[in-house]
Amino acid sequence: MLLEAVYHRPKLNWSYAYDRETVHLRLRAKRDDLTEAYAFAGDKYMWDQSKELVPMSKFASDDLFDYWQCAVKPPLRRLKYGFLLKDGQTEIWMTENDFSGERPATPERLFEYPFINPADIFHVPEWVKDTVFYQIFPERFANGDPGNDPEGVLPWGGKPERDNFFGGDLQGVIDHLDHLSELGVTGIYFTPVFEATTNHKYDTADYMKIDPHFGDIDTVKRLVKACHDRGIRVLFDAVFNHSGKTFAPFVDVMEKGEASRYKDWFSVRQFPLEVKDGVPSYDTFAFEPLMPKLNTDNPEVKEYLLNVAEFWIKEVGIDGWRLDVADEVDHRFWREFRNTVKTANPDAYILGEIWHESSPWLQGDQFDAVMNYPFTDAVLDYVVHGKLDAKGFADVIGKQLARYPQQASEVAFNLLDSHDTPRLLTLCEGDKRKMKLAALFQFTYGGTPCIYYGDEIGLDGELDPGCRKCMEWDRDKQDQDLFAFYRKLIAVRKELAPLRTGSISFLIAEEGGSKLAYERKLGRDSVLVLLNNYDASQTLEVPAAGQAWRDAMGGQAYETEGGKLAVKLPAYGYAVLKREN
After folding, report:
1. Within-domain flag for 406
2. Which of 117, 247, 281, 348 is placed for a possible disulfide with 320 were both Cys, Cβ 3.0 to 4.6 Å?
3. Would 467 be classed as within a structural domain?
4. Counting Cβ atoms within 10 Å, is residue 89 exposed (0-12), middle (13-18) or buried (19+)?
């Protein structure tokens, strides 16, 4: 038993309250090193009467480690605990300070979860687990009101550039909600809709005003109501890391310099404000002089932005915020932001844009979730780029699951492309079989999946500006087979609850190979998902209880033999198997 690999610490993702009654305990060990693991737990004030051994199960693995977990219900919300590690006949007890061959006689040196305080529990909005999001870049989705077109607007469908306009607006979204309802979408994430100078609107001029080229507050109220009437939630994009150069306080600083009352609203290194050798004398997003960084430690800035966050939830009824460049804003601001938003709407979804491991923001005091780009990278590396074999992919997914409390994984925002990346079809070099295979994993995995507008009808495009082309509304030019695939995939996810909130365990993950199979399980319900990430047909054989199974995607029926199910899949084929009665 390699004790150097064994790891646990209180709180964070290792010991946390899942609800008012339950504490999740996790333990890391070398892969395939332990045959069993137990939590040794009880109340410190009534140890002899309450102590028990709670079996742990292996819930995830990566290339180096296994991750074990159990759920403990403390009798009085207090918990002292250690661990019993087994490797065949060998038994080791783990306390807070050391390892021992003898069972601890008293709880004094054990780990401690002092008390399940309701205020500390990481609550996430339940509705997100069942939601299918659709990302809309408003300027390129649909032009519903030519009367608000910007000057120099181009005919719809032209070549996208970083600085051109095609007249997309919020009325255009209202006009095409039937498309989203037919697809099965139940959530929309809008990139910024507030007044700005660019087509992408990440350079906010006025956080309290809808961009006139998109509509006005009455338009957005009609949009939100129309969405809610269809069971579609609405997520707005907030750019609180930086403003635009035309934001009134920054204009004042540009004009008055150190004499401006707003000089401390920004992070100015040196006056006058200028750009030398491509580097502004004030902090910005990247080195973009159009996007000066806001000083969120300034009480006036903080009050202004928190009022913005509250206003759009209360006045318009949006269902949450996506937070741009979230990792460059101070943690204290995000804690106050969460308090403000959750007070306005306890069910609001708070989603941070962070592209990497995000544990510091996912402890229940800041975000509900982050845009899950590590998930994106893993799926693309397996299906599209060929950088991961099936085992490597399963290992990366296991590592990702072990990083965060279960609540955060349950509402993770899982995307395969966005306005910041090449489109999925382009990454797949036009191979729609690979595109479908990647989407199939996305929709049969936990968290909430998001479709980038137009993916469902075959829109392609390279990195910005190519990925921001106009939506195609001519049905003769839409890929109807792809649309039918996404519609079916969404329907299957809605039908089969284990795909949304069930546990995941990998049944096949070939080392050096392409076959992947996993089980999603919720209570007694089980769904088997099989993927063939290879350019020729292959047969996958998996253990399966029950006699008859049916593919929820294609309808084919299969029967088990000797407790196993053999399914032949075509090149880049898949099956989502549910047990017949």
Report:
1. no
2. 348
3. no
4. exposed
